[in-house]
Amino acid sequence: MPFITQSSIEEVIAKIDAVAVVGDYVRLENRSGRFMGLCPFHTEKTPSFSVNPDLKLYYCFGCGKGGTVLNFIMEMDKLTFPEAVETLAKRFGVVLQYEANGDREVDKNASKIAAFFELYSRITNSFHYLLTKAYQGRPALSYVLSRGISYEMIEKFKLGYAPADREWLFRFLSKKGYSEEFLAVSALFVQKRPRMSFFADRLIFPIKDRLGRTVAFGGRLLSGDGPKYLNTPESIAYKKGQTLFAIDAALPEIKKTQKAYIAEGYMDVIALHQVGVTNAVAPLGTAFTDEQARLLRRFADRVSLVFDSDTAGQSAAVKAILTCRRNGLIVHVVVPNKMVQMSRNSYAEADGDIQNTLKKVIKMKDPADILKEFGKEVLKNSVKSDIFDFDYLVARCKEIYDTNESDGKFKAAAFVFPYLEALDSDIARDTMMGQLADALCVEREAVRNDYNKRRASAFVRNASRGDSQAHQPHNSESICMNDELFLLAVVAVNNTFYPQFRVRISMKEIEDPAAKDIFIALEECFVHDETGLDALLSRIGSENVRKFIVERGASKEFLSNPEQLISDGIKKIKQKRIERRLANIVIELRLIESGQHKDENAYHSVALYEELLLEKMHVDAELRKLKENKE
To answer: What is the pTM of this model?
Structure first.
């Protein structure tokens, strides 16, 4: 793979809009020139992740993760450095230049992922063709249309069909030039029978990442025996607990409204998108996970759960509420009886037959069923009707337990306690504890006492296991701020001043090892005519020093009048160096005067004394000039 020229890299970096790039992944707010959001690298409820648009840096004051925008998209999208440069060049309209003789070995893992994406894109198109154009896909197409799904949605989600012949896919891909070894690790075939596809006679749902790249497939059984739904296994590009179905299609509306709808299945999501709820997503065959909640929390602060009305669906809703609350999301739940009421309000003038029809909505398990049986308007109005998650949990616990009995009251309260623990506001927790007591017709103090006992018991258990939920703020270990490090950090963050800086101070005047590392990296960049923070950071070997520079850059303390900071810093270092030398001279003079100098030869001592006096005169003059700003 040819090298991208340094000038092209610098052109890309110069044109990057850091806030726009990072804003595709994290919802940022402008706080007096500093753009803050929730860190995508660790769980937090209060924003500590910052973006510096001038330096094109990101930094989290909570976990210490930081770097340049190029580092950020490399981390988020698992790209190599050249892939990140090419991605940003395409976005910001930079035509890249490549060195003619700069071949190098491409990162093998990145190459494998790229091949993986290309394969899955091809399969997506092939399965889609079989569903929409081929004779063998007609039964599957008829099934989709019978569920009320439109052709527009079939195209939008690129639904497909996997033939009943389990070896069809292997033969098809082999003819396209894919090796048997590559297909064996493609996560598309049964491990012990590498020619047998996971999918046979199934409706196929491509699962895409945030960038719209197919990373996996889900398949619904259309005939025969087997699981109703089946997903491809996890791979180098796909972790089901970290991905959401339809996240690529839903993200624009999620960003716009700062809200997401979470449904249970593929068909539910597609049904919701069809009626205009285009911020709907779904987990992938598992319970809604913390990783998925954190993914949504980057762009939204509210979610509505649209889960099945059966027992399994309601249990899943309770777990999802706790997961969302743990990760700082405000939650509402769409419930069947509210669906009916909302529909009644929307059709206030409807006749008795329609009202009877609307009552049947309560028996529908999910959005896909409602769309099929009652059409777009009923589904659209249904999901607008939701209740606050706490109200839902209180109603749910009263359904499960007999709250007329003391034991039922105790169990009902215990059912809600995990929710109270997940809240990050003591005021909200105290308010809802009172509401729970009122709903169960018990004393508020009794609920509070039981809750505190539960928390104390959990703390003891966790302590005995050595668990710790507290997150310690990042601290750059072994990096101790001093005048030299402060000065070099200022120059690093404002490295356009380095040519003037290097003329005024030499490397031998710097003693701190970390500061010296920065100085050496700056000099190497100067010699190789490299500019920008990316180039500088790449030349610093110590991860702690790199983190230190990024952290200081994120704080903006070095951006206000950097020229003055550098000038004052140079003066301070030179002054301290001169003062140290002056102190040493004075000590040696006193030793000679007292006869305690190590050189006992009298002639030598007199000569040294005169030499030291002369040096002291020069040092005194140098110090006076420096203090008078005549450096």
So the answer is: 0.65
